[in-house]
Structure formats: C-alpha cells, structure tokens
Amino acid sequence: MKNRILFSLAIFSMLIAYFIGVSVGKQGISYALDVTQGELAFNHLKRYRVIKEDLESGCLEEALEKLSFYVDEQMMLLAEYVQHHKVEAINSYIAKRDDTLLGQLKSYEIDWKKEWVEKKCQEI
C-alpha cells in the first residue's frame, strides 16, 4: 500500500512538473514571437518612411531603386525557405495568396553577397 502511494505521488509530481514546463515553454515562445514580430514591423516601418520621404521629395528614381532592392531581399528570403527549408505550411500559404509566386521562388537566384549602395534623395 505504501509503495502504491509513493508511486502515485511520484507520477503526480512528474505530471505537475511536465505541465509547468509546458506552460513556461509556451510563454517563452510567445515572448520570442512577439519580439520578432515587433522588430519586423519596426524595420518595415522604417523602410516605408524612407521611401515615402523620397516620393514626397520628388526622388522617384531613388524610391524605385530602394523598392527593387527590398523586393529582391524578400524574394531571396522566401526563396531560401522554399528551396532549402521546404516548409509545406509556407508553400501552402504562398500558393493560396499568389498563384505564380511559388513557381518563381523555386527558381529564384539566392545571392546574399550582393552589394547595394543606397542612394540618398537629393531634393529637387
């Protein structure tokens, strides 16, 4: 009888420890996702503001060049996921929202060594 009680307490303790661990793990993942989303939103906002300023100053060429660079950068990032990581959830997400993009990404050239010098807008 005593062994059964000790065994039950041990199992109960392990279950409590497991559920506490799962809860703490979820909080850590949630925090990391929040930080990542916040950083992405901030960086995109910064880029959009620079392009908006260029357009408002009449610097169409500079704005288009920045947009081209940013699009290429995002294409390479997505192409890397499609070509190397092969995460089906990402492929499905892309295919559902843009029926031609997934095909483009499968053959997109990934070259992270590309250099680009950002041209500053010279107000007209």
TrEMBL record:
<protein>
    <submittedName>
        <fullName>Uncharacterized protein</fullName>
    </submittedName>
</protein>
